[in-house]
Amino acid sequence: MTKKREAYPDIDLRALRRALRGLHELSRQVTDGDAWDEPLPAELVLFPAVGRCRRLVYTGKLAFSNRLIAACGLPPRSVTLLTRSGLVLRCYADVVRREAHATGAEIAFVGDLEPFALSSYLSLVAGGFEGVPTADRLLKVRYLGVSDSWFALCREEPRPELRHRLPGDATLHVKMTAFQKRNLEILEDSGVPWDSIVGREAMTLLRSGNSVAIEHASNPECYAPGFMEKLSRHVYGTR
Question: For the whole model, what pTM was predicted?
């Protein structure tokens, strides 16, 4: 089941185009209070593989990258870790594409369980948020979480006092705003197979009006000592 959840999703180009059209329209409606995008352009932070790159991990949260490094050391020699908040613009998708083509590495995405992060994931799949997605620009991107498989890791390694409250209290669900719910509605109406990509349990949580920040789903204070090591293997694709 894990392999199925982590397989490259089959996203129809027409569904991807519908999703991006809806997101472009949504982007024109954003106000300062919606917190949908970064107020200023964010730079791409890159931790390059020091050996042959076999996996490129793209995440929108530098805090999460730093947490993994603090807990488990630098990424494995075969992993390039890229971090940039916000939607993936074409210039950054091109960086990912060039590296993947040069090394044959697979591409993976890690982010919050919330609509904006899923929008960022789609913008990477599309090869950039700008313009209309075309077949020649699409990228195969493995979605790693926060997802059903991530929740399974949370349940394997809770602190004893939290064992019967995962992935609820320990991952600290956050109520979505009306704008986030509209964002989710656009993503769902597009026809993208989110249950297959993210997982049915995780999508059910989103549909209930809740979200999960990656900082909460990877907080070492909530889990036993082995959790971060298991999570790093999940993210980096190592054994």
Answer: 0.90
Domains of the chain: 2-236 (3.40.1360)
Nearest Cα to Cα of residue 96 among 60, 43, 55, 38: 55
Residues with Cβ within 8 Å of residue 21, at least 6 apart in sequence: none
Q: How far apart are CA 92 and CA 128, in angstroms?
A: 7
User: Alpha-carbon Rg of the chain, whole angstroms?
Assistant: 17
Token pair recorded at residue 29: 């409606």
Residue 131 confidence class, pLDDT cut points 50, 70, 90: confident
Q: What are phi and psi of 185, to 5 degrees?
A: -60, -40
CA dist 70 and 218 (Å) reads: 12
Instruction: Output phi, psi for 203, to 5 deg.
Output: -70, -35
Find tokens 């392999």 and name the residue.
Answer: 3
For 135-148, b/e burial (b = at least 16 CB within 10 A) is: eebebebbbbbbbb
DSSP, res 8: P
Tokens in use for 220? Answer: 């070492």
Is the distance from CB of 182 to CB of 26 less than 8 angstroms? yes
How do beta strands 174-175 and 141-145 pair? Answer: unpaired
Question: Which tens digit of pLDDT belongs to each residue from 11-44?
Answer: 899 999 999 999 999 988 888 777 676 555 578 8
Beta-strand (E) ranges in 60-171? 79-83, 106-110, 141-145
- Tens digit of pLDDT for each residue in 189-198? 999 999 999 9
